[in-house]
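Board notes (copied after class):
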Amino acid sequence: QVEVVESGGGSVKSGGSLTLSCRLSGRIWSIDAMGWFRQVPGKQRELVADATSGGSFYYADSVKGRFTISRASNENTATLQMNNLKPEDTGVYYCRVAERSWIRSHDHWGQGTQVAVSS
């Protein structure tokens, strides 16, 4: 059984730091990318940071220079280091593992972890 397990998150004051971790358990055909999405009430889930198996990285403009995503491909894990946090970073963060192969294309999601940043 495939499962995406997240850890980290919590409450910090503006300017603080948090680290989110994501681990894929179980076996899938091929991981194309691992990334983090953020969702706030009333808005669509948005991509915050993504790391592809090809070594490419993506960051939303709002987090560039503050967030860093890293992957350990041999362990199927991804970490999001969040520095200089701002109140607008508040939300539920979801890890997404993108499975892409000639057999199937499927996104695996974690259960979400809350990040709250106070001013």
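Comment from the instructor: The chain has a mean pLDDT of 95. DSSP finds no helices and eleven strands in the chain.
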